[in-house]
Amino acid sequence: MYQANRIERDRSRFKKIVRGAIRSGIRKYISHGELIGRKGKDLVSIPLPQLEIPRFRFGQNPKGVGQGEGNPGDPIALDPNGPGQKQAGSDPGDHILEVELTLEELAEIMGEELALPRIEPRGKKNIVAERDKYKSIARTGPEALRHFKRTFRQALRRQIITGTYDPAEPKVWPVKEDKLYRSWKTLPEQESNAVVIYMMDVSGSMGDEEKELVRLTSFWIDTWLTSQYKGVERRFIIHDAAAREVDAETFFHTRESGGTRISSAYEVCLKLMRESFPSQDYNLYPFHFTDGDNFSDDDEQALKLLSEIVPQANVFCYGQVEGSYGSGGFLSQIQEKVKEEEKVRTATLRDRESIYDALKAFLGTGR
Fold it and tell me: In this structure, which of 84, 114, 133, 309 has its CB flanked by the most CB atoms within 10 Å?
């Protein structure tokens, strides 16, 4: 018992050390995106080069490979002083320890470091649906649902008890009383109660690096919102002069040319919110990423649609990406027209280092 308690104390101490190391480097991970490629279904693998792990260190053997004299002609090793040969190094190299965390643990560390408040859901916190789940056994049912193993065990048990089972000639014949069937129960199941709607400008001015900024930002947004809600659903909208809903792969890898009409994205977003995700049932989080270079005659229409989106959303986040061609003026339009609206959050993504501050601006509302 003492040994078990000691192991548990050591394990807890090590977890605190790991947690502190991750927290101290969280800004680097947010900025450079090492975690996205290491994300599994439920775990994230994090490289921590600052932690050294115990290891053996071997001394040099003056006799070389093996012991004693060999037979004539046996090759042992190349001449260390020969051409192209180098002496083995004696200095230690970098040690990288892979530490696995659940996404919930990662989100908790992220929330602590960015001082993010817990979200207070609006509207209905939960949407409950009924689902039939096969969790029990019944004595009656259709043959298609007969539980073979349980039926076999029941028949074998009966035959052993009654003495009709012959080990020399093992045959098990189930009768009607032996048969057991899978049965179901109707259980309440919580469905998605938060929806993240990502919108992105895919016109020619939004290049690969600009999309990578959006991808990294979206990963951390998902990580935080998933830790706050039991279910999170994502929708993706791309636009240039026209907009359409797409899947995640298309969202992050499409590049088009042509002009930009931000209102086209807001129209699709508004339609999606009204028809599929009413605000009285869902917590809605629209995020829009663009370089802000909007067609000048479209600003008024875009702002009008935005004024209809904002009341239905928990928070509306606008991220203006500075690309190779600079940034447009739509950010200033938003800040001027809706500066009194607390639900509208804006941030400028100049480079990867600015992702940290953008996340704090977007998620620091507690809405």
Answer: 309
Burial of residue 158 (number of CB atoms within 10 Å: 0-12, 13-18, 19+): middle
Whether the CB-CB separation of 210 and 323 falls below 8 Å is answered with yes
Between 70 and 175, residue with greater pLDDT: 175
Query: At a CB cut-off of 8 Å and minimum separation 6, what does 30 contact?
Result: 110, 216, 220, 355, 356, 359
Strands (DSSP E) found in the chain: 43-48, 97-102, 128-138, 181-190, 194-201, 232-239, 243-246, 283-290, 316-321, 344-349
More confident residue, 306 or 99: 306
Burial of 344 from C-beta contacts in 10 A (0-12 / 13-18 / 19+) = buried
| pTM for the predicted model, two decimal places | 0.64
pLDDT in tens, 102-142: 777 777 877 877 778 777 676 554 445 455 667 778 888 88
State the amino acid at position 183 in one-letter form. Answer: S
pLDDT value at 181 more than 50: yes
**Assigned token pair, 14:** 């090590």
Quick check: 238 and 244 in contact, CB under 8 A? Answer: yes
Least confident interval from 30-34, 54-58, 232-236, 320-324: 54-58
pLDDT of 209 strictly over 90:
no
User: What domains does the chain contain, in order, with CATH numbers?
Assistant: 2-53+96-114 (no CATH), 128-188 (no CATH), 194-363 (3.40.50.410)
**DSSP secondary structure code for residue 117 in this structure:** P
Please state the length of the chain: 367
Closest C-alpha among 209, 199, 274, 189 to residue 242: 199
Q: Answer whether residue 256 shows pLDDT above 80.
A: no
> Measured between alpha carbons, how far is 213 from 169 in angstroms, rounded to an integer?
71
Residue 26's alpha-carbon distances to 31, 105, 226, 325, 344, in angstroms, are: 9, 13, 18, 30, 26
pLDDT digits (tens, 9 = 90+) for 287-301: 999 988 888 789 999
Amino acid sitting at position 332 = S
